[in-house]
Design brief:
The protein is mostly beta strands. It contains two helices and five strands. It has a domain at 32-96.
């Protein structure tokens, strides 16, 4: 029996609230704020309080301030997330894992 692991991530591109937040649309964000929500959700926001994050995955727990000058934000895995934060004020990413058993004989 082998265990095959599938890791799926779903980027939810959610529209930001109608409220305008300082920094929204700012192409030169030096840092953003990371939050953990429910059901595998994590978010980046320009709002340190997380007030602009959707209620769907609340409550949101502040994880820390993140510098956007690192390689993952400039050319790596978080580049698209940073672009969404600049455009909308936040981005929510939901991680899920599915494990499937495969029986071989």
């Amino acid at each position: 029996m082998t265990l095959t692991r599938y890791v799926n991530s779903v980027m939810l591109l959610l529209a930001a609230a109608c409220t305008t937040y300082p920094g929204k649309g700012d192409a030169r964000l030096e840092s953003i704020y990371m939050f953990a929500g429910t059901d595998g959700a994590m978010a980046y926001s320009i709002d340190k309080s997380g007030a602009n994050l959707p209620d769907e995955y609340a409550p949101w727990r502040f994880e820390g301030e993140v510098s956007t000058s690192g390689p993952t934000f400039q050319a790596g895995t978080d580049k698209r997330a940073l672009e969404e934060v600049k455009a909308e004020g936040y981005v929510v990413i939901v991680w899920s894992m599915t494990f499937e058993d495969e029986t071989t004989q």
